[in-house]
Amino acid sequence: MLTESVPQEPAPQEPVADETAAESRTAPTRRTFLATGTAVGTAVVAGGVLGTGLLPEAEAAAAPAVPAGRVTVTVNGTRHTVTVDNRTSLLDLLREHLGLTGSKKGCDAGACGACTVLVDGRRQNACLTLAVRLEGAEVTTIEGLADGGQLHPLQQAFIDQDAFQCGYCTSGQILSGVACIKEGHTGSREEIAEWMSGNICRCGCYPKIVKAVQQTAGKK
Fold first, then answer.
1. Among 136, 204, 208, 148, which Cα is nearest to 177's?
2. 46 pLDDT exceeds 50?
3. pTM for the predicted model, two decimal places
4. Burial code of 26-41, b = ≥16 C-beta within 10 A, e = fewer?
């Protein structure tokens, strides 16, 4: 007896390959995950620093103003009256407000002497001196040491003795040397070296600096 066979529809195949491909297209790779995490983290940090960390405009406007003071000081024979932040050093007053950049900012901690100037004839570290405390003072910087086109004798002696290399410390060395001579501390090489010890020369020109001070003081 013949049995009529009924054609059966093939069972649907699970689209394994297609789903896997779809997943690979939608699931983040390790590289994508790391890049996205880095970008989000950077945005959060930037937002905290630049956005939410800032005071609202109203609070910023209500913040107390930086205390400032008015000071009159004579620098190299010229009288100046300026208003500055009470924390401004004499060195910054000279360099930033008066444009006298001969005094150098070295350590900015009073240890190297590159910023040495004369205040009422006495040597002083300009980086440690508050400008507002100099009311009525007379300050001499390297720019005011020469007499017109005539160099100060110690400036000339530094040239004669080749007492500098890079020259960064030179203005402070010369101002300190002028005071050293005026104070009478030039009895010997050792005495000069001792009283000039607050000025550091990174090029090691100390013997020639001492010779320049000796020459100016009249010591041969």
1. 208
2. no
3. 0.71
4. eeeeeeeeeeeeeeee
